[in-house]
From TrEMBL:
InterPro entries the UniProt entry points to: Invertase/methylesterase_inhib (IPR035513), Pectinesterase_inhib_dom (IPR006501), PME_Inhibitor (IPR051955)
Region forming the signal peptide: 1-25
Family designation: Belongs to the PMEI family.
Protein known as: Pectinesterase inhibitor domain-containing protein
CDD domains, alphabetized: PMEI-like_3 (cd15798)
Taxonomic superkingdom: Eukaryota
Native organism: Eruca vesicaria subsp. sativa (Garden rocket)
UniProtKB keywords: Signal
Molecular-function annotations in GO: pectinesterase inhibitor activity
SUPFAM superfamilies: Plant invertase/pectin methylesterase inhibitor
Domain Pectinesterase inhibitor: 35-196
């Protein structure tokens, strides 16, 4: 499992420029930045968790501007970072003291699901970058967008499946509580990213 996570973390490095500290440290208060914030707010209101969406993306307003493509790319990049962090956290729980065997197996399955989802998100980021390049035919453009929608949706399914192994009162406890809190959060972030990708795609399918 660790080699797989290492490979996925390496893929993540390709997208860190979108999440540079300079974009977070000094948000601009210029009129253009304020307009970009308004664009993010209006876009996020089309998602299931708008407040979380705004919180995740507002710091990147200057990079996003009014581009639905950059908005979707940034949402995917933020999701990728958060899922990666959660995957690493959950993986560490397999080495927790006094973990029961049933909990260990559930955590192990959860790590595999999150790892699969992380791979799907990394693919989606690469494909979304291709979507943004000029010179694509309409058919190729829509095909690549469809790939992104499919892979992000699959990642969301993987995150939801992660929690299935903790069903039932017999699994109640600190391990389940800690994992559920983090996985529910990243599932919501992923859901928002998917909504923004779908919105971008719908605009071009008309």
């Amino acid at each position: 499992m660790e080699p797989k996570l290492t490979h996925l973390c390496y893929c993540l490095l390709l997208f860190l420029p979108l999440l540079s500290q300079s974009a977070i440290a000094k948000p601009s208060s210029s009129p253009n930045s304020n307009n970009s914030i308004n664009f993010i707010v209006s876009s996020c209101h089309t998602t299931r968790y708008p407040k979380l969406c705004i919180k995740c993306l507002a710091a990147f307003a200057s990079k996003i501007g009014h581009s639905k493509n950059r908005l979707a790319q940034t949402a995917l990049a933020v999701t990728l970072v958060r899922v990666r962090s959660t995957t690493v956290y959950v993986a560490k729980l397999t080495r927790a003291r006094r973990i029961k065997r049933r909990e260990y197996l559930a955590v192990k399955d959860c790590v595999e699901n999150l790892g699969d989802g992380l791979g799907m998100l990394a693919q989606s980021m690469r494909e979304m970058k291709q979507v943004g390049r000029s010179g694509r035919s309409r058919d190729e453009f829509l095909w690549r967008l469809s790939n992104v929608e499919t892979w992000v949706s699959a990642a969301l399914t993987d995150e939801t499946t992660c929690l299935d192994g903790f069903d039932g009162k017999v699994m109640d406890g600190m391990v389940k509580s800690a994992i559920r809190r983090r996985v529910v959060h990243v599932a919501r972030v992923t859901s928002n990213a998917l909504a923004l990708v779908n919105r971008f795609a719908a605009r071009h399918k008309l």
